[in-house]
Amino acid sequence: MRLLEGKTVLITGASRGIGAAVAVECARHGANVAINYAASPAAAEDVVAQIAALGQKAIAVKGDVADPSAAQDFVKAAVAAFGGVDVFVSNAGICPFHSFLDMPVEVVDRTIKVNLNGAYYMTQAAANQMKDQGRGGAIIAISSISALVGGGMQTHYTPTKAGVHSLMQSCAIALGPYGIRCNSVLPGTILTDINKDDLADVAKRTYMEGRIPLGRLGQPEDMGGPVVFLASDLARYVTGAALLVDGGAFVNLQ
Predict the structure, then answer these.
(1) pLDDT tens-place string over residues 97-107
(2) Which domains are seen in the chain, by residue range?
(3) Which reaction does it catalyse (predicted)?
(4) For this structure, is 157 an active site residue?
(5) In whole angstroms, what separates CA 63 from the centre of its chain?
(6) Where are the beta strands (DSSP E) in the chain?
(7) Is the pLDDT of residue 250 over 70?
(8) Which of 37, 120, 121, 157 is catalytic?
(9) Are 46 and 28 spatial neighbours (Cβ–Cβ below 8 Å)?
(10) Which of 7, 15, 121, 161 is the catalytic position?
(11) Is 144 one of the annotated active-site residues of the chain?
């Protein structure tokens, strides 16, 4: 069953990691996909090639989500290529681990601009296109389990992810009258470029795995199904919700 047949999906930060996996899974379910990326054109084109191999169409659009104009450019490129926007996935994010007391100002500012401001501008641009089309749509933001719990080396990151989740709650109210659903997905520890250096410490990785009831860290592909569900008509009455995808880490208090 192809849950996104005939739909156009836009995904930010989709040249690798969670974004790339979600892009490919959406294509597997029948969507044409526009991916945004900030660097690594070769990686972006590889994702486009994977989507083409599934029989779907894809484009890659370079842009820094922290720049408000990138949002307009991304949406315009998708509309030119595919005729509209049905689903938008706000995924682009950074997490340069750093201690709190000596946190550089530029690290805080850049993290906020990419993770929170970028999600805001991109969501706004996609929502305006959906409103003008008049047929509703779905917006999904990749938040994080960090929206719910703290991290000593992530004091700049966790507030942005809480903000992304809050953005989806407010947008669910603001955009509901237009038939646009807005939800967030909260991944646990997923093995991506963001945390590969941090988890290179074998002892820390073993400790993290031991805290997860399912007994393993997440893979980017684990995010595909939850996003496809929220994007599809199976979730037609789901908006303002948050879906934890963490292997049970959050509920394990022992």
Answers:
(1) 999 999 999 99
(2) 8-245 (3.40.50.720)
(3) L-rhamnofuranose + NAD(+) = L-rhamnono-1,4-lactone + NADH + H(+); L-rhamnofuranose + NADP(+) = L-rhamnono-1,4-lactone + NADPH + H(+)
(4) yes
(5) 15
(6) 8-11, 32-37, 58-62, 87-90, 137-142, 180-187, 242-245
(7) yes
(8) 157
(9) no
(10) 161
(11) yes
